[in-house]
């Protein structure tokens, strides 16, 4: 089966080769010399890039989309809720919607892992076309040992809770998690954000979480536990790269970002004091500035 695209303005439905329909948004001139591909995080969707988009240079084509099982895309089919599958989805999207020209890839959290898996599974694409990469609050390994920023016994308990939560989601039969948004917001705020949180940002992320398909995101959490793509990063050496992380990130903490930077010693390493995991909301201008630099290289 071949991938197909149905267009409606800037919103499109892209059907992957295994028959999964993904929500896609393509903006900017189709004849642009460079396409910026924005790849979102676990339990979020393409709307997480909304704050960044207006601050990017004009004249650039921007491709953003919802992973399978997230936002307005269809749920992941059995056995396809994996980071490897996300990389294959991304390769198909690029082949159909940005088949020519330079590429700059920006991945947040699971989106960054997707970019790493793309380098692993489609090295010829990365080598021939990718001229810049941004890894935003992400990890190349050790996602099976998260303590959510807690120490000692509390950290060990947090790790067990994290794994249990993933298993519960993986078995969930409903289309959405039936938690009222006001009850979910405090947990989202504590887990995902650092200091000086804006209520609108917490609301936006909570809405994204509650839109995601539980069984799909549970499967992706299991896949992230097995994610180790340090070797795949080798193919990005020599490519202009920026690694960004907040010093209050509980999900992909600073030492995860440092491992990426060690594998890519020429990369720019940016540490944001006071910021948590949601850098597209918490440090919007700084993220947009680094992406703009990559686009101008």
TrEMBL record:
One of its GO terms (molecular function) is hydrolase activity. Signal peptide: none annotated. InterPro entries: AB_hydrolase (IPR050471), AB_hydrolase_1 (IPR000073), AB_hydrolase_fold (IPR029058). Residues 35-282 form the AB hydrolase-1 domain. Keywords: Hydrolase. It comes from the Bacteria. Transmembrane segments: none annotated. It holds the Pfam family Abhydrolase_1. PANTHER family: AB HYDROLASE-1 DOMAIN-CONTAINING PROTEIN, HYDROLASE, ALPHA/BETA FOLD FAMILY PROTEIN. This is Alpha/beta hydrolase. It comes from Amycolatopsis tucumanensis.
């Amino acid at each position: 089966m071949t991938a197909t695209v149905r267009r409606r303005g800037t919103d499109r439905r892209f059907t992957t080769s295994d028959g999964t329909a993904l929500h896609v948004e393509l903006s900017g001139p189709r004849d642009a010399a460079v396409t910026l591909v924005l790849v979102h995080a676990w339990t979020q969707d393409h709307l997480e890039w909304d704050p960044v988009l207006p601050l990017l240079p004009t004249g650039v084509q921007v491709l953003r989309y919802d992973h399978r099982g997230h936002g307005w895309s269809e749920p992941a089919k059995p056995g396809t809720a994996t980071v490897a599958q996300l990389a294959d989805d991304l390769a198909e999207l690029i082949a159909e919607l940005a088949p020519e020209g330079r590429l700059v890839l920006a991945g947040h959290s699971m989106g960054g892992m997707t970019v790493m898996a793309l380098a692993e599974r489609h090295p010829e694409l990365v080598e021939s076309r990718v001229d810049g990469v941004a890894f935003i609050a992400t990890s190349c390994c050790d996602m099976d040992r998260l303590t959510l920023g807690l120490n000692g016994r509390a950290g060990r308990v947090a790790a067990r809770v994290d794994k249990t939560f993933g298993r519960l989601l993986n078995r969930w039969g409903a289309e959405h998690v039936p938690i009222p948004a006001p009850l979910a917001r405090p947990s989202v705020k504590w887990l995902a954000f650092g200091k000086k949180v804006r209520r609108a940002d917490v609301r936006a992320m909570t809405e994204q979480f509650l839109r995601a398909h539980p069984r799909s995101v549970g499967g992706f959490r299991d896949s992230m536990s097995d994610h180790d793509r340090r070797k795949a990063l080798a193919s990005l050496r020599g490519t202009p790269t920026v690694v960004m992380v907040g010093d209050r990130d509980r999900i992909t903490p600073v030492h995860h970002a440092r491992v990426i930077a060690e594998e890519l010693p020429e990369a720019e390493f940016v540490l944001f004091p006071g910021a948590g995991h949601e850098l597209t909301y918490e440090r919007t201008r700084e993220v947009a500035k680094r992406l703009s630099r990559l686009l101008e290289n």
